[in-house]
Predict the 3D structure of the following.
Amino acid sequence: MSLLKLAWRNVLRQKRRTALLSLVVVYVTVAVLFLYGLLDGYGESLVEAYAQYVQAPVVVAKAGWWQDPDPEHGLEVLPTLAHPLIQAQSPRLSLYALLRSPYRVQGGVVQGVDPEGERALSRVPFKVKEGRWLSRSGEVVLGYRLAQRLDVRLGERLVVETGQGALGLEVVGLVQAGVGNVDFAGVYVHLEDARRLSGRGILATHVAVKVPRGQEASVAQELNQNLPLGLRAKGVWDLMGPIRADYEGSRLVYLPLMGLFMLLAAVAVVSTVYVSVRERLREFAVVESLGFAPARLAAQVALEAALASGVGLVAGLVLGYGLLWYTSTHDVFGPLMRLSVELLPEAGLSEHLYTAFRPVYGLYASLVVALSALLALLFPGRLLLGLEPSHYVKGE
Amino acid sequence: MLRLAWRNLLRTPGRSLVTGGVVALVVFLSLLFLSVYAGAFDAFYRLLLERTGHLLVRVEDYEDKTDLESLTFLPPSLPLPPGAEVEGVLEGGGLAIVGGRNRTVVITGMEPRGLARQQGLLKEGGLPRASGEALLGEALAQALQVGLGDEVVVYAPGGFGLGVYAFRVVGLLDFPETHLEAQTLMVPLEDAQALLAPGRVSRLEIRLPGLGLYDLKALEEVKTALAPHLQGLKVETWLEANPVYAALLPLYDTIMAIYVGIFFVLAGLILFNALYLSLVERVREFGLLAGLGLSGRRILGLVFWESFLLVGVAALLGMGAGLLVHLELADGFRLPLPQWMLEQYREFGLPEVLYGRLGVKEVLLTLGYAVGVALLAALWPGYVASRLEPVEAMRYVP
């Protein structure tokens, strides 16, 4: 305790110097917190988009369908899925189809859904911007950007054609979900209509399953152990397309960079501590001649480095979490995300990105304190280990 | 003054080395970062340019038109500069049907020159040489379960052509983007016209020889010369035709400046610390210099020289190392990421092999930051040193 008190007093002896080196630590702490928050926020926005809008938290389909998503590999019998964490499940039937409005023809993937089942599973039904969600067969709900492209409005008819059949469906709703795949390519029809359009005796191509957030992979894994032969479940991370690589690639690039930032901050702290130790060599010599072990003195220097960087860390945590709070509650990155959605409409990006806010980031940032202490022990601390008290006490 | 500043830096070699090392590292990393990102951006844009040509001619207000009739036109003859090539393209949507399977496709009708440009993407088979032959994306062929020599029926209602046409698959294409590969069907222009819109094209692609990726001024000149000859049509540069990509270009500069700025703020703070420590250590010395008659301005100059020398030497070293690595990158490199990730990045149009690019702008940006950091970091320590009272400073005890 006395060592701590002594170290703290020494840190406060040079207030301006401590404040300056704290600035470096504050900056790095804010950078670490913000970057972690941004990366995790990006990951969370992808999970949210794929689990709630584009796909589902867990999807069960035939192994053949995962390889070749054609109705040929659809489900003739709907599997019974039992797991305590399953909150809802609903069959879906996806088809490749030609969409014909009175003015335009465009290809797309039609999603046959059970209107009520979908309400319990997905957020799409709640994002209808104009009109209403599906209620019976003979209706279609479109992403609003797709409707603009097809030049089709509420109440008009859209012809959906597959090689096996065609149906004229009434446009009853336009969805604006803020997720590229839904707004630019979403086509939702009644499951019965999709079955008719498939021209095969299948009930669905896959079953979408809702499970609590964060449990997707484990539930999929556990389901796989009990599913009938030929069926396979996948969690949301496995359902993501190439955008997952962008997220994981970003982590691979930026996390080492943050490590480098923390190391440089620690170097800055240690260089200040080094000067401080050199200024006080005589003081240390006196203390050592009074019976203090050199190792204890080196520990005191390490403690001083930790305390000095700790001051910066605390200020950085306050500022960094303040910034994270703001960016986690305000859509600061919205304009950039909207541009990204326009650029990559089928990547599953969301138009909104909020940073994550987790206490653990503070723990990561506090590594700078540990690094500072370690480096202080190695460099200025070593100076003290080789100190000759008689030399300095004499004032030479 | 310069010599004095240099000598002062050498008096604390350890600290000068550490601080200079940080600055050099930041300059090096900034150049590396800028080279890699510019290379990635170029690759992204080059692919776009290759696909669209330098200039595109389409009907006026095509953004607001929806039906094939108003989106297509009879190609006029254009007065083009020597060496320029113009190709008509007709594009439309349809359904490719094979037995019980079907997939939606984008039918692209191309002239022989346009089809020949796909040679590099050819995975199997050859190019269409006669009417009724088609190139399919490999993923599309897999989805339809067809191979070379098989027949695909294309159903494309909504136009004013035949609406249905049978093609024989003669070649399979391997695109970097699977989603594109899964819907690509390329056929001779005459076949596409018979299917969708006889005699018409939906765009003219103009390719100009010897023009670089960002030679937009030269493109503007050709565009201006063409405009009077286009009645009811509109000519756009490849960037104008892709407004989202065009919006990215100015954003890219800002984002890069912010990224590099983040590195330099850290370097600046570390330099600031080092200069302040150096001041604290030499308070008595500064007091003595002032007592001997050195003006506050010259003391301020001394601190600035120390900062500029330290940053200058470090920046030169960092830049040298950065440029050397850049030369390597300019010959082509792969991002140091796992193979599966690189393959996924291809889906966004980013090839596995990139070519680093550093322009004058990027080098000046880095140098500008270095100079700015040297200046800002020295301001306060220099000011404090210049205001020292000689007697008080000489009595200073740390």
